[in-house]
Amino acid sequence: MVWPRRFLLRLQALFLRNRSAQRLDDEMQFHLDQQIAENLAAGMSPKEARYAAMRTFGNSTFLKEETRKEWGWVWLEQIGQDLRYGTRTLAKSPGFTAVAVLTLALGIGATTSMFTILDGIVLKPLQYPDASRIVAINTHWTDSGAEIPLTTGGDLQDLRGADAFEAFSYYNGGEMGVQLSRGAIYGGVFVVDPYFFRVFAVPPIAGRTFAADDAGHSAVVSTGFARDNFGSASAALGQTLRIENRAYEIVGVMPPMFQFPRQAQVWAAISPIPFNRNRGGFNFHSVAKLAPGLSVKNADAQLAGLGNRLAAKFPDSNRNRVFTARPLQDQLAAPVRSTLLLLMGAVGLLLLVACANVANLMLARATSRVREIAMRAVLGAGRWRIVAQLLSESMVLALGAAILGIGIATWGTNALLVIGARFVPAPLLSRIQFDWRVLVFTVIVSLLISILFGVAPLRQACRVDLQRALKQSAGSMLLGGGHSRLRNSLVIAQIALSLTLAISAGLLIRTLVALQRSQLGYRTEGILVAYADAPARTLPEALDAGRIFDDLFLRLRRLPGVISSAGAMGLPAGEYNSDGSFAIEGRQSFLDAKGQPVPGDLSHLPHAGFRLASPQYFATMGIPLLRGRDFNDSDLYDRPFVAIVSESLARQNFQNEDPVGHRIQCGLDSPNWMTIVGVVGDVRQTSPAAQPGPEIYMPLRQHPFVANEEEVVIRAAGDPKTLIPPAQKTIHNLDPEIAMKFTTMSELVSDSIGTQRFRTALASIFAVLAVLLALSGMYAVMSYVTAQRTAELGLRSALGAQQSNLVLLVLRGAAGMGGIGIAIGVLLSVATGRLLSSMLFGVRNLDPVTYALVVAVIVPVILLASAIPAFRASLVDPVTALRSE
């Protein structure tokens, strides 16, 4: 039982160290007094008795140290002493401390902020029970490697019965109109099968989720939807809403944390059997929960087997097609993962530049402390004791920087959330928060950088020549020849890293400029867009909705300031998109009169985007009509079907023929053959970065089932936003049940390149900060170098050297460091440019213009940062400079 007692005593000594020290002092004083009393009794005088007792007792300080060693935890006490001493030492140099802390805080704050975003989106698991078992089901083509997050209605039925899943569900939807008793609103509406919430296993905060017999008449809403429209979650239960003229009773309200799919506010139950069960239309998203104990890899193997069986059974539609399970978190993060990793790398480079800058400051400061270090060594301090002392100062700086950096990170994270909210999926966005994971990351980063910028002065401190250091004056102390080489190396590293960031940012900036200057093929200025949804479920209701929209276009054209108005389904950069295969009469045919695929190999059918448009749409949007005619008012549902194709489709499929007069067939919603009546110019459909491709435009009135949700485009003579109030009033007066929301074409196009703008803005900010830190490092080093060479410059001046010659002498060294740093930075940029290649548009990753512009900007600034201290040193009076030595 000796060791437990000893451990308890040591633990007591740790937490009651001051009391133990006082007791030790009292005990030693007691023994000293006893010895003095014995000496006095022996006849010594008081003075002799005291001196004799002290000689007998020995060195009290040594005895105290030996006793403390027995208590244990000496290393912890020494760390505390070093930290207190380091804090006092740094407090004596407030200028140096402030610059070092601020520099590091910028690096730590930026790094922590980016890690917070990366952690919430990529690393942190979703907030659903058994989130690791929730997967998205994709369709994968084995011959091309292509993969899409969609499945066909026919494949869904086979996937549902797979043994790999404990629960399976499909869904579809987006923003559309919802009719309430108080009016129509526009919101995120998704139709889901009754098993949807079984996949996520998230309980509602009020009511219940779907039962098997809820299809077609029950809905679940979000907390926000219930609160905004009914006052509270409980008040929403039992209320009725209508979607596409079908009534749904609200049976449950989901908690705020449940936000899947993105922007979902209403989940309406539909039949587990999809309405479209062909195997050619990819119309559905699907999610599943894996069976207990089944890995994603094993699930993929089972799904691949299922895909191969379906390919053998349905060779015309399923050839070379299998299914893959992707963790839902990975699927949601995929669109932004590369951007976040790029920015994390950029902020890591910024942190390295900050560390190099502070290391240089520490080296310069260490020069003035050579005598102090030598004196401590002479008095008995070992090498590791000196190293611990210097390292503790680095830790104090890092701790102060971490505290300030956390504040910067909090502000930066909030700013990033505001900017990134447009393109980060809501289920991931809600998980971004400053929690213990981020705090641990910040602490680890702070400890690592304290070592990084503390290594340089530590390395040089261990090489101090004691005799030389004690003989030198305070103004001429040196840390040795390696000091200047290390200092210069740090400056070169700063220049190289900052140049790499600047070139990367330059490539992204040129990409953004190219996107903004891209020839879109349509007009963006002066176009107001109204998303309008007229409820319709049956064919007569859909035909009535078409007539209402035609009337709306006429009324809008009469408004003051309106040049023209039209409608579309599939506006460029808009929310609606559809595409698929099509056939040309006499060459292919893939749909029978009932809309079912005909036998034969359909894998080589041409592919195109499917768009709907009203008369005057192309003129309103500024899309040129190259051949044939526009749609007109006679292109109705009961008339022969017609279509207009894009220039790309005509060039790829008709080559030397005139496509006008040919008939085509597509699988949008009807098997009817459509006569091509015109050819229009190409457009960049999804964003300015998209290449123009084949498009088929069809009249809105001939496809009523998908044309009751329209994008109404209004061309204005002035600011299009001034038309919102009169347009809103016009729509409401025509039919109060039409839900609507407004935007502009300029905003749609701008939002479509939001990801590019986000990463360009952040990369540019990081690059500017890195360049500023590198330049401040260059300025500090050149100021130090010229101060050390004051006597030399004074002597050269006394011997007749011109001021310009002295400045050039100093700049020669700066130019050497700058040249090496730029050369290394260019090489690093070549390597990093390959990582950026997939994110560039209109510019190559080895673009010489960008490289030349960045170098042309940075070189003069580097020379200026070096010239200022050089010019100041050249003005020193030679007599004063020589006398100081």
Please give a structural write-up.
The chain is of the alpha+beta class and about 900 residues long. The protein has four domains: about 1-70, no CATH class; about 145-320, no CATH class; about 335-515 and about 755-885, no CATH class; about 535-735, no CATH class. Helices cover about 55% and strands about 15% of the residues. The chain is built from 29 helices and 23 strands. The strands form two sheets. Strands 1, 2, 3, 4, 5, 6, 7, 8, 9, 10, 11 and 12 form a twelve-stranded mixed sheet that branches. Strands 15-16-21-18-20-19 form a six-stranded mixed beta barrel. The two termini are about 70 Å apart.
Task: Characterize this entry briefly.
Helices cover 54% and strands 16% of the residues. The protein is an alpha+beta fold.
Overall, the morphology is elongated
How many beta strands in the DSSP annotation?
Answer: 23
Radius of gyration: 38 Å
Taken together, the total number of domains comes to 4
Kindly name the structural category. Answer: alpha+beta
Question: Can you tell me the residue ranges where pLDDT is under 50 for at least 5 consecutive residues?
Answer: 473-481
Largest β-sheet summary: 12 strands, mixed
- Give the rounded overall mean pLDDT: 82
| Number of helical segments with 4 or more residues | 29
What is the percentage of strand-forming residues? 15-25%
Helix fraction by DSSP (H/I, runs of at least 4): 40-55%
- In whole angstroms, the N-to-C terminal distance is 68 Å
